[in-house]
Amino acid sequence: MTNNYSEAIKAIKSAILKSRYRAATLANKELLSLYYGIGKFVSENSRKGAWGTSAIDTISERLQQELPGLRGFSPVNIKRMRQFYEAWELIFVNRQLTAGENRPLVSDEIPLNLLTANRPMATDDLQSINLQCFLSIGFSHHYELLIKTKTLEERSFYIERCAIEFWNVETLRYNLKSKLYAKRGKLTNNFPATIPDKDLQRKALMSFKDEYLLDYINIEDPDDEPDERVLESEIVGNIRKFIMSLGKDFSFIGSQYRLVVEEQEYFVDLLFFNRQLQSLIAIELKNGVFKPEYLGKMNFYLSALDDLVRLPHENPSVGIILCKSQNQRVVEYAFRDTTKPMGVATYKTAAKLPAKYKNILPDAERLKELL
Fold it and tell me: Which of 106, 208, 263, 295 has a 20 to 30 Å separation from 118 between CA atoms?
């Protein structure tokens, strides 16, 4: 009887969660369609000179009076709705309309089903946009993408990742800042020679970036590179941010992970597990330029992990050497004749000011004198 109750509870819980998700998704679709319709209406009237220069401010103020407590319709947000419409109008303008949409609209009527109607795709550009993903992410996500992406392909990539991986706006901002779109799949690696399965090989390549942004690393002297222990300590202290930069499929197992081989101890800097690859991921941190001998040490760690830690159903372990810089030719030579799947990536901190800001603030010595 208890088991029957457990199954019933499980089924009801699943139905509730699915219903809540559908309700949230439908609400988001309606909101996006509302903003798109308002954006269209505002654009057509404000851009063609039908309204005065302060029209949007006045409209926002009057809306607050007419609908007390109304949120999301400040002058700034109304302008963002206009920007949302204008960014996508050329993509959606050629859609085939349904019969109900063919009726004429009165001059002050705002269409609310411009995005949510189920109709065939009509332009080549739309083929690269997953409409279901487009409608499932929030307006804040869309606005971030409008101001921080340059191409439709890039925007489409982030839209799908936001929808499929349930990114919040903070995660989206981080991945935009770290240029995930440009850096995915470019890791220097030996996967073609060490991973026979082509699908697993592709997944492994797409699981890593060629450069990671560690802008939370605290370095007192911007001209010094962090010691490897300092680098590790800062990463572990900000492990949530580091996992955010790695991706959603990574789980942290531990730092200075202990391996015992023939009564001698060895320590892996950082050990993770990747659910997509079903593999242990060993990461070694280096504060300078890549050296060929790093691969020998990593190869040893991966052999030990495969024999001593890996479970029977898991794939072979993968190693990533994260260093400050690398010489492509040196890495390629070092990878020859290696037998374990490994990659070399670089990291970048935000310790150094961009050149245009360097002369704005006094240096450390001058600051001491001023104080």
Answer: 106
- Reduced to 3 states (helix: H, G, I; strand: E, B; else coil), residue 213 is strand
For residues 342 and 280, the answer to whether their CB atoms sit within 8 Å is: no
Distances (CA, A) of 26 to 33, 87, 92, 111: 11, 23, 20, 17
Q: Is the dihedral of CA 89, 90, 91, 96 positive or negative?
A: positive
CA of 370: how far to CAs of 306, 353, 358, 363, 366, in Å?
58, 21, 18, 11, 6
Cβ atoms of residues 207 and 247 within 8 Å: yes
CB neighbour burial string for 125-152, b if at least 16 within 10 angstroms, e if fewer: bbeebeeebbbbbebebbbbbeeebeeb
pLDDT at 118: 45
Ranges of H-type helices in 93-190: 124-127, 131-136, 139-148, 152-165, 169-177, 180-183
Contact present, 207 and 278 (Cβ < 8 Å): no
Q: What is the Cα–Cα distance from 219 to 289, expressed in whole angstroms?
A: 18
**What does R_g of the chain's alpha carbons equal in angstroms?**
26
340: left (phi over 0), alpha (psi -120 to 50) or beta: beta
Q: What gap in Å lies between CA 288 and CA 227, rounded to an integer?
A: 9
Q: How many CB atoms lie within 10 A of CB 290?
A: 23
CA angle in degrees (0–180, nearest 5) for 236-242-243: 110
Question: Do 283 and 346 form a contact (C-beta atoms < 8 A)?
Answer: no
- In words, the CATH class of domain 186-355 is alpha beta
Reported as type and span, the H/E element at residue 318 is strand 318-323
Using DSSP's 3-state secondary structure scheme, residue 285 falls into strand
Nearest to 113 by CA among 131, 104, 101: 101
Q: What is the pLDDT of residue 349?
A: 81
pLDDT along the chain (371 residues), means of 10: 68 80 82 90 84 87 88 92 91 56 50 57 55 90 95 92 89 90 89 94 93 78 68 92 89 96 95 96 94 95 96 96 93 92 90 52 56 53
CA-wise closest residue to 87 among 134, 136, 49, 24:
134
Helix (H) or strand (E) holding 293: helix 293-308
Tokens 């060993």 belong to which residue? 282
